[in-house]
Automatic annotation (TrEMBL), chain A:
Protein name: ABC transporter permease
InterPro entries for this protein: BPD_transp_1_N, MetI-like, MetI-like_sf
Source organism of the structure: Streptosporangium nondiastaticum
Membrane topology value: Multi-pass membrane protein
PROSITE patterns: ABC_TM1
CDD domains xref list: TM_PBP2
UniProtKB/TrEMBL annotation, chain B:
Alphabetical UniProt keywords: ATP-binding, Cell membrane, Membrane, Nucleotide-binding, Transport
ABC transporter domain ranges (all copies): 19-273
CDD domains, A to Z: ABC_NikE_OppD_transporters
UniProt cross-references to InterPro entries, sorted A to Z: AAA+_ATPase, ABC_Ni/Peptide_Import, ABC_transporter-like_ATP-bd, ABC_transporter-like_CS, Oligopep_ABC_C, P-loop_NTPase
GO cellular component: plasma membrane
Molecular function in Gene Ontology: ATP binding; ATP hydrolysis activity
Pfam name, any one: oligo_HPY
Name of the protein in question: Dipeptide/oligopeptide/nickel ABC transporter ATP-binding protein
Family: Belongs to the ABC transporter superfamily.
Membrane topology reported for the UniProt record: Peripheral membrane protein
GO biological process: peptide transport
Length: 332, 365
């Protein structure tokens, strides 16, 4: 088990390095070869030539690619200074870049937005896993009945309806018409009540989409597991049905759900772009949209790295949980 | 009376296990699948019954029916339709409260399944799965007692270092060891009825013999009634006191093993014997397969279900084999000659069958 964890951790480190390499390549190396000017992309076309030249110098864009890469990576761990003839700016570790458009390091901006996205993803996740798995299990156990058909029709709706539609619809009904839910996002530490009030609608909207997918996945998996020989064995032992379902069948049903959950959560931490935009939540997704609109490259780069890292870490957690659930994983 | 025991009379049972007119039908989109269609037999403690037949003859469905496993966990539509009577140790199971039957399952009647790898949960240790079977019927037993019992049984079925292997997972066991563990799990509550459904099919030939020996020894030791379900006449020859041959969901012949092997009175049994390889006799000819394929259980042939494959279908006059279903009749009638325990269901006159067997079939085997 210990060797397994070490192996997985090592894989994560390699994976993150690859992510940084690829991201760096996209933002620095490729523009160099295609003749595009990263400095221009960094600050925007409207900037005056002197400012562009300053940034080019600060970023060291004239230096060899490998040296640029080294500066970028070491900046993440040790911080770095962007200096030119006009003066220098310091970007403390971990330096994921410096936005010359807003004149601030990217990292603090990212970390200030992370709690919003985490709140959104975490709360929605609890809702959709509970709702989706429960619905899926009940649907599987009542296969072919009215309950099953209704649940699966609703789930089909949930999967098909785009989030910008359900988000706007729920806003129109519950916020503006009925006035049930409150306004702006506030941090949990400041005011838990309004934190909850501001997030409940995004949670439900986001959870509805995912719950629908999880209900379908759970139902399909559960039906398959219920046909397994070892379920018959469990019954042949005289175990009561709740134990057969809750213990023997659920244990196997959890495996594929966990896989999908790891990926979904990882991707969501990188920002639920549509949800955050629709509900004006100041999270990473919204930052990404704003950065793309403003061509604020360092910010885009930062969000990309955070998203990639989140996916990698979520998968690590899933892999470790696999080993807890499935003994065969531990040995192979 | 020379027909099978009257079904559905509700009389008190005459044997430890008394199955009467068992019918198990499954409604499907294509029609009603009559997997078991009127099966009756008795079994005493300490004896072994071998149920033989091709795939789809209803053997496994019968065993699951006795265990009551068709009526639990059948969620939604498509439930099995079951009728008849199953008497176990004086209790009728078919009409009993499902929870009462559940409490008998695993305690008074237990089952060994065909493929021990898929029949064991891959995520729980062998020990956990055995102790679970024990503790569900011994709610007062603590973990330590249950574990001791599991180790004891693993030792009894021949697992080396049982106190260590008890914490292994099924995938860490070899095929033969898994089947031993499966047997240990079935025996953990000293069941009085043990059903082994193709217990050796998934195993190597050498391991098969060991497992059969083990089942035989354990039966002597525990004195339980055993049903062995198989398509392998060799297994039945090893273990069974009595044999029941199934075809198309019905019994076509049953009786003491030595009678069924030495004087079979049904053309299907002849076919099975002819397709069985024997090493104790000079074999120069090829094995003789039973021609055709097993009947569709949705459209069971009218008359005798075996008639489309039977080489002697035209022997009885008037095409009766295609219009009328033969009932089980005592071989040798009521007289002492037949021993009163050998039954077969065939339209041909008994003398004719005896002649065909001794003159045409037996010499070729």
């Amino acid at each position: 088990m210990f060797a397994y964890i070490v192996r997985r951790l090592f894989a994560v480190i390699v994976m993150l390095l690859v992510v940084i390499l690829v991201t760096f390549g996209i933002f620095f190396a490729i523009p160099k070869f295609t003749g595009a000017d990263p400095a221009l992309m960094y600050i925007g076309k409207q900037a005056d030539p002197a400012a562009i030249e300053g940034i080019r110098e600060k970023l060291g864009l004239g230096k060899p690619i490998l040296e640029q890469f080294w500066n970028f990576v070491s900046g993440i761990f040790a911080g770095r200074d962007y200096s030119s003839a006009n003066g220098s700016v310091h970007c403390p570790a971990p330096c994921f870049g410096y936005s010359f458009k807003h004149e601030n390091p990217v990292w603090p901006e990212l970390t200030s937005r992370l709690p919003v996205t985490l709140s959104l993803a975490g709360g929605a996740c609890v809702l959709w896993v509970t709702g989706g798995v429960l619905t899926g299990v009940v649907s599987a156990l009542k296969r072919g009945t009215v309950w099953d058909r209704t649940a699966m029709t609703v789930a089909l709706g949930g999967v098909s309806l785009p989030i910008y539609f359900t988000a706007l619809l729920s806003l129109a009904v519950f916020k503006y018409k009925l006035g049930w839910v409150g306004g702006e996002y506030t941090s949990f530490a400041d005011a838990p009540g309004s934190w909850f009030g501001g997030l409940i609608l995004p949670w439900v909207t986001l959870a509805f989409l995912y719950a629908a997918m999880y209900a379908r996945l759970t139902r399909a998996t559960m039906l398959e597991v219920l046909g397994e020989d070892y379920i018959r064995t469990a019954r042949a032992k005289g175990l009561a049905e709740p134990v057969v379902i809750g213990k023997h069948a659920m244990r196997s049903t959890m495996t594929p759900i966990l896989t999908v959950l790891g990926m979904d959560l990882g991707a969501l931490v990188g920002g639920a772009i549509l949800t955050e935009t629709a509900f004006s939540l100041p999270g990473l997704g919204q930052a990404a949209v704003a950065a793309i609109n403003e061509r604020d490259l360092p910010m885009i780069l930062g969000v990309t790295l955070i998203t990639a890292s989140a996916v990698v870490f979520a998968n690590l957690v899933v892999d470790l949980l696999y080993a807890v659930i499935d003994p065969r994983v531990r040995l192979s | 009376m020379t027909t099978a025991p009257a079904p559905g009379t509700g009389d008190a049972p005459t044997a430890f296990l008394d199955v009467r007119d068992l019918r198990i039908h499954f409604p499907t989109d294509d029609g009603l699948v009559k997997s078991v269609d009127g099966l009756s037999f008795q079994l005493e403690k300490g004896r072994t019954l071998g149920i033989v037949g091709e795939s789809g003859s209803g053997k496994s469905v019968t065993s699951l029916g006795i265990m009551g496993l068709h009526t639990v966990g059948q969620y939604g539509r498509g439930r099995a339709r079951i009728s008849g009577e199953i008497w176990l140790d004086g209790k009728e199971l078919m009409g009993a409260d499902p929870d009462e039957v559940r409490r008998l399952r695993g305690r008074e009647m237990a089952m060994i399944f065909q493929d021990p790898l898929s029949a064991m949960h891959p995520y729980f240790t062998i020990g956990h799965q055995i102790t679970e079977a024990y503790r569900v019927h011994h709610p007062d037993a603590d973990k330590k007692t249950a574990r001791k019992r599991a180790v004891e049984l693993l030792d009894r079925v021949g697992i080396p270092q049982p106190d260590r292997r008890v914490d292994d997972y099924p995938h860490q066991f070899s095929g033969g060891m898994r089947q031993r563990a499966m047997i240990a799990m079935a025996l953990v509550n000293n069941p009085e009825l043990l059903i082994a459904d193709e217990p050796t099919t998934a195993l190597d030939v050498t391991v098969q013999a060991q497992i059969l020996d083990l089942i035989r020894d354990l039966q002597k030791e525990f004195g339980s009634a055993v049903i062995v379900i198989t398509h392998d006449l060799g297994v039945v020859a090893e273990l069974a006191d009595d044999i029941l041959v199934m075809y198309g969901g019905r019994c076509v012949e049953r009786g003491p093993a030595e009678k069924v092997f030495s004087e079979p009175r049904h053309p299907y049994t002849w076919g099975l014997l002819g397709s069985m390889p024997r090493i104790d006799r000079e074999q120069t000819d090829r094995l003789i397969p039973v021609k055709g394929s097993p009947p569709s259980l949705i459209n069971i042939p009218s008359g005798c279900a075996f008639n489309p494959r039977c080489p002697y279908a035209d022997v009885p006059a008037g095409g009766i084999t295609r219009t009328e279903r033969p009932e089980l009749r005592l071989v040798g009638g009521d007289g002492a000659a037949g021993g009163g325990r050998h039954w077969s269901a065939c339209h041909m006159a008994e003398e004719e069958r005896a002649r065909i067997w001794t003159e045409e079939i037996a010499p070729k085997l």
